[in-house]
Amino acid sequence: MDKMLVDGFGDVTITNDGATILEEMEVQHPAAKMMVEVAKTQDDEVGDGTTTSVVVAGELLKRAEDLLDQDLHPTVIVDGYRIASAKALEILDDIAIKVDPTDKAMLKRIATVSLASKLLAEYEQIAELAVNAVLQVAEKTEEGGYRIDIDDIKMEKKPGESLLDTVLIKGIVLDKEVVHPGMPKRIADAKIALVDSPLEVEKTEFDAKINIENPEQMKSFLDEEEKMLKDMVEKVAAAGANVLLCEKGIDDVAQHYLAKKGILAVRRVKQSDIEKLVKATGAKIVSNLDDLKPSDLGKAAVVEERKIGDDKMTFVEGAKNPKAVTILVRGGSERLVDEAERSIHDALCVVRDVVRDPRIVGGGGAPEAEIAKQLRAFAQKQEGKEQLAVLAFANGLEAVPVALAENAGLDPIDIMVQLRAALGLYADGLVGESLQQHGFDLGCTPEPSFRVLNERARGDELRDVLVAPPPLIATWNQGDESLNAPSLDRAVRHAIQIRAPR
Fold this sequence. Notes:
Layout: E1 3-6, E2 12-15, H1 18-24, H2 30-45, H3 50-69, H4 74-95, E3 97-98, H5 104-115, H6 124-137, E4 139-140, E5 146-147, E6 153-159, E7 167-169, E8 171-174, E9 186-195, H7 215-238, E10 243-246, H8 252-260, E11 264-266, H9 271-281, E12 285-286, E13 298-308, E14 311-317, E15 325-331, H10 334-356, E16 359-362, H11 366-379, H12 386-397, H13 399-407, H14 412-424, H15 434-437, E17 446-448, H16 449-467, H17 488-499
Parallel strand pairs: 6-15, 9-10, 9-12, 10-11
Antiparallel strand pairs: 1-2, 3-16, 4-5, 7-15, 8-14, 9-13, 13-14, 16-17
Helix pairs in contact: 1-2, 2-3, 2-16, 3-12, 3-16, 3-17, 4-11, 4-12, 4-16, 5-6, 5-10, 6-10, 7-8, 11-12, 11-14, 13-14
């Protein structure tokens, strides 16, 4: 279900992305701020699973509160949680299934699961688009794995048309138009020069005055300025370039001469776009036109100015093996496009995670339930009060399938009973490929094991800080009644009172 968020300036955001919702909220409480940091870290590291990380972290704190009420010391709780966390990661490694990182069918299913709860759930082609984009920018490493920088996939938003018109461009789309009306609007077999210095007459760094006493001196001055700009254009043409993409400005006189040479030019291109163009076309960035050589030029099948909506954009596409691509996101309104961009970003991230670490687990809360089951058996072997914390950790993980059942309109008690019964059929647990041997089809709801692992890690780190805070946090005014929020806050205050130095 989407949420409508209105900030202090009246700007409206409509989304169901957990990280976006928490980022837009004006949070003051120190414990709640840590929750926001958990979501941000999960979003930065994994790209998806932000809501699950906050749910797990909150449930672990809630269980910790119950243990605090039983007079268990915070240090004992944290130690038990650490033991349970380490064991949970071992179990997760065991139940993960290895997959082929280039299997497009499996990657598409994983992307579809990520999009299932979002705006683009009904658009299967978006999942395929995300898979193609990630595989296009993936680079093989010496160790046999893949290196993927998600920043190599540019997201260009443009309201208009429908979500079905969202396309993958194997190249770069610049939200810029050709600088001069006399220039060609389309160049086939483009040879591209990337320049990060201006095609303008250099100005002095200090105030300078020129005394002109007659018209001849004025003409001489203007002619010399024109000659300098013409020489710059000649250097570009001499290198064989028919497309010039400049990070800085291009003088009007230089534009005129570029148009006469039949060179398509775009100015004030963003530095991030210039860097992507290097990967997409193979060009080298040149700072001094004197150093421009034919070997510095990039290549593309076509460079063309097209009208998208009410704006003109420049498309650079058709390179031999571009390692930077663009997803042009379309939609009926600006808010729709913004939410579509967030959804596609999540899909890109989960596909990247599987390509980098090709292991998956079942979705729908199944891995959490299996980990909880094995942790309960593991807890019986623990001596001391840490056993209670391990059991609390196991129970806390089941908050994920319970939340999913509630959101689906099902009875969570019935669902949990059925889930535990199904998992209980296999006393040794479902490990790796044995899932498929027992007839389980993970293809319907697969999730990256890397994502689940990070969700557990984020919750564990927050737990360590809030359940057993350092003495410095004891400076919190314990008598401040404005902080008397129920549930989560009480656990934190209780922990602080226990740890506060006397």
